[in-house]
Amino acid sequence: MNRFQVREKIKEFFHEDIGIGDLTTEAVFSTQDTAAGSVISKETGIFCGAAVFEEGWKLLDPAMEVTVHAAEGTRVSKGEKVLTVKGPVRALLSGERVLLNIIQRMCGTATETARLVQALDDSSIQVCDTRKTMPGLRMFDKYAVRCGGGVNHRLGLYDAVMLKDNHIAAAGSITAGVANVKERVGHMVKIEVETTSKEEVQEAVQAGADVIMFDNCSPEQVKKLAALVPEGIITEASGMISIETIAAYRGSGVDYISAGAVTHSVQAHDLSLVVEEEKKL
């Protein structure tokens, strides 16, 4: 993650939560009070997002000292201490909830991605995400997918072309849609086309698509459609992919499997900040 962007996002989140001030913390503690604490994992999963803790607490007070004990993308166990933090207690407690919320979602996303990769158990196919991320959190969601062993699909509407069913319907055909794109977009931008049948796949190949997606197709359909695509064109299966179904796509011949579930309905990983001491300077 770009740390400048991380800081800007966290500033936005702090403005929402802290507003003009933390009434509780500022009423209880003075600017001279300090404390130390540990972030504990309450369950087993994949840890990621240390930069959020490091940048977030230092935004509130540069005197905050953050020490991360767990490496990015590694498995942590229930009860494991993943981080220690110490410094002015106002900054420690005012930043706690926002930072934990972000990291818990990130760890949950990384953990779910790792589960999908493990369930697929096919090194020839990479698991990737989609644009079904939480608004405002895409940078964090996408990074977490990488920490979980997955790869990123396009980051937004701006870095790749993807002709979906509605684009194709409005353009009149796959051929017309791809032709329009090639007239208006530079050669550095890849073009992906969503397909659902043999005829659509063949049309996408002839139109010159760089990537062909098989949307909402069964594993058997995916295998047959993938065989129609010549080498040099990337293939992707998407839709109906979950932890229960992904293993059925093992050996299907596609290059990528995208799953919106890793970000749109992820369960947060349970983390807790435990304050260990409080003293006056």
Description of the structure:
β8, α8 (198-207) and β9 (211-215) form a beta-alpha-beta unit. The strands form 3 sheets. A 6-stranded parallel β-sheet has the order 6-11-10-9-8-7. A 4-stranded antiparallel β-sheet has the order 3-5-1-12, covered by helices on one side. A two-stranded antiparallel sheet has the order 2-4. The chain is of the alpha/beta class and 281 residues long. It is built from 10 helices and 12 strands.
Could you tell me the radius of gyration in angstroms?
Answer: 23 Å
Topology pattern, helix = H, strand = E: HHEEHEEEHEHEHHEHEHEEHE
Please outline the major beta sheet. Answer: 6 strands, parallel
CATH architectural grouping of the largest domain: Alpha-Beta Barrel
- State mean pLDDT (0 to 100 scale): 96
Shape label: elongated
Unreliable parts: none
What is the CATH domain class of the largest domain? Alpha Beta
CATH topology of the largest domain: TIM Barrel
- Number of DSSP strand runs: 12
Going across the major beta sheet, what is the strand order? 6-11-10-9-8-7
Percentage beta strand: 15-25%
What's the arrangement of secondary structure elements?
Layout: H1 3-18, H2 23-28, E1 33-41, E2 45-47, H3 50-60, E3 65-68, E4 74-76, E5 81-88, H4 89-120, E6 126-128, H5 138-147, E7 161-163, H6 165-171, H7 174-184, E8 191-195, H8 198-207, E9 211-215, H9 219-226, E10 234-238, E11 256-258, H10 261-264, E12 271-280
Parallel strand pairs: 6-11, 7-8, 8-9, 9-10, 10-11
Antiparallel strand pairs: 1-5, 1-12, 2-4, 3-5
